[in-house]
Amino acid sequence: MKMRKPSAALVKLFDEILPNDPRVERRQMFGHPAAFAGGNMFAGLFEESCILKLGEADREEIRGKHGATKFAPMGREMREYSVVPEKLLADRKAVSGWLTRGMTYALALPPKPKKAKKSTKKAAPRKK
């Protein structure tokens, strides 16, 4: 299944609403912009949606107050992630606060170790 790329406008908005914090690392995840803290992803774009990883209480709040939905790409639910509703995305101050909550949650999780880079050296041919 081919994923659609997010629009340039959504990518620009994502960059603008990310917490201005040196602990935030911006990377690509499956060709989509994503934000990590402590090695844990806490926000990203998926096609034309912004997704956010939150703790249980915050997930319940964003879903109850703002109508966020569960993130379930290709029918597989990712329990801690919610899709940020468009109406909330339009309120930059409010959505920035939610991304900060996501970053705080990610930093409270055990840090993920960095993966060792794969060697690009080719193995020597076997001797017969």
Short précis:
The chain has 4 helices and 6 strands, in the order H-E-E-E-E-H-E-E-H-H. The protein has helices spanning 8-17, 56-66, 86-89, 92-108; strands spanning 24-29, 32-37, 40-46, 49-53, 69-71, 78-84. A 6-stranded antiparallel beta sheet has the order 1-2-3-4-6-5.
Describe this entry's structure for a reader.
It is a single chain. The protein has 128 residues and is an alpha+beta fold. The protein contains four helices and six strands, in the order H-E-E-E-E-H-E-E-H-H. Strands 1-2-3-4-6-5 form a six-stranded antiparallel β-sheet. Strand 1 and strand 2 form a beta hairpin.
Features:
128 residues; alpha+beta; 6-stranded antiparallel sheet; 33% helix; globular
Number of helices: 4
How far is the N terminus from the C terminus? 43 Å
Alpha-carbon Rg, integer:
17 Å
Strand content: 25-35%
Shape: globular
The helix content is 25-40%
Largest sheet, strands/sense/barrel: 6 strands, antiparallel
What is the string of helix and strand elements?
HEEEEHEEHH
Mean pLDDT score: 91
Give me the side-by-side strand order of the main sheet.
1-2-3-4-6-5
